[in-house]
Amino acid sequence: MAIERSAAKRPNWSSGFAFIMATLGSAVGLGNIWRFPYIMGQNGGAVFLLMYIVLSVFICSIPLLCELLLGKQMRRGVIRSYEKINRKFSAFGWLCFITSIFIPCFYFVVGGWTVNYIFIYLLGTIPVDQINTATFETFAAQPIAPLIMGIIFLVLCAAFPFRGVNKGIEQANNIIMPMFIIMLLFLAITGLFLPNSIEGLKFMFAPDFTKFNFTTVLTALGQALFTMSVGMGCLVTYGSYLKKDSDIIQSSGLLILGNTIIAVLAGVMIFPAVFSFNLEPSAGAGLVFITLPKVFAALPFGQFFGLIFFVLLFFAALTSGISLLEVSIAAILEKFKISRKIATVIMSSIILVFMVPTTWSFGLLNGYKLLGKTFFEIMDFTASNVLLPLNTIILCVVVGWILKPKMELLTKNEKFYSVFMFLLKFIVPPVLVLLMLFGLDVL
Ligand code: TRP
């Protein structure tokens, strides 16, 4: 497609609404519903939540704007955007590219789990009241079935970037996001009526500061970046399809607010149920898949609600999965001047290869650990707690100190711009560097 190679004819979002839905669709996904509760469960609950909110609003909002701004100004994917600033910065783009392979490797495995749960609820292969911890563990430990489910998820995600920006990516988001939010509200309210739900709320909202440590802060930072899709050039890519006059401040505000509310709602949906059914908050990656089926079993029409929930979760994951793929696809499409279709096939194949060991981490390869972590956990940890913060630091330094983005692309308000630039140059990078060094136990 020659169209996409020249900046003048680059595809554009067809409306402001489409852009907001696409960024929200990218941000809201398994990160909020699957990763957030399980990571919060392992990191002490309320203290983690507090860190997460503070970091999202006060720190991550700056690189979020910065990514959109870089894309909007350069109108290129992440590798070419860096190269346009300076040829020597190519490596920074490639680091984002590598991150965009790391994340799908485990993300798509979890996407595959949602596909499996859709089948379970749709076909009724297991009676609703018998879907339990063992259901999840036996499934995840198999060598072939989870891999097939993961591949189904990968192919469905890849179908959208394959078709292009407007037809594919936009259409998917406009319908799914509003429906998803309604379902979440319903389940969160249901959760509050479960016996013992107050314990879950205490776990989430009453901080126990003895649990505070720097690893928790770094993990909260990783989670904040992860759920907002910051730190890998995803928003550079989506920002590159923006028209010059689109308002990115408003959409970023909405993104941070919407994303945080959805994560908290997801917590309220999960933790009262975890305590009500005597489950372990620190159960790990299977937490949502183990907890929610118990809620559905307790509801009238449980099979129906289970099905609707997993279908919506699947779609939320799909819109994020699409954005994950779009980063590497847009990057190599421009870099090597290949067609969008070929780029999609190449990237999907590479990801597929790495998905094999992550999938098998729950079964065949369960015994193989490095520093106590399975391959799945290593990919997740490295991507979220090392690569995303590292890419974000580089982004802030390069854009703040070297590119110095054009003011009119961000705002007409000079004061706002200088505060933004001040935070971008002097506050955010050192804070992130310190958090990383402390969190990784380097200091
Ligand atoms: N934010 C998404 C979620 O919460 C995942 C995601 C999409 C992502 N694009 C990203 C994470 C880019 C990091 C970087 O599910």
Quick summary:
Helices cover 75% and strands 0% of the residues.
Structural description of this entry:
It is built from 17 helices and no strands. The protein is mostly helical and 443 residues long. Helix 3 packs across helix 10 (214-227) and helix 7 crosses helix 8 (165-192). It is globular, with a radius of gyration of 21 Å. The N and C termini lie far apart (49 Å). The model has no long low-confidence stretch (mean pLDDT 90). Bound molecules: tryptophan. Residues 26-27, 29-32, 103, 226-227, 229, 231-232, 234, 320, 323-324 line the site of tryptophan (TRP).
Compute the CA-based radius of gyration: 21 Å
SSE order in H/E notation? HHHHHHHHHHHHHHHHH
Mean pLDDT: 90
Distance between the termini: 49 Å
Ligand set: tryptophan
Low-confidence stretches: none
Structural class, judged by helices and strands? Answer: mainly alpha
The tally of helices reads 17
Task: Note the overall shape.
Answer: globular
Key terms for this structure?
443 residues; mainly alpha
Outline the secondary-structure elements:
Layout: H1 16-27, H2 30-42, H3 46-74, H4 78-85, H5 90-123, H6 133-141, H7 145-163, H8 165-192, H9 197-205, H10 214-227, H11 234-239, H12 248-276, H13 287-298, H14 302-335, H15 340-360, H16 375-403, H17 414-439
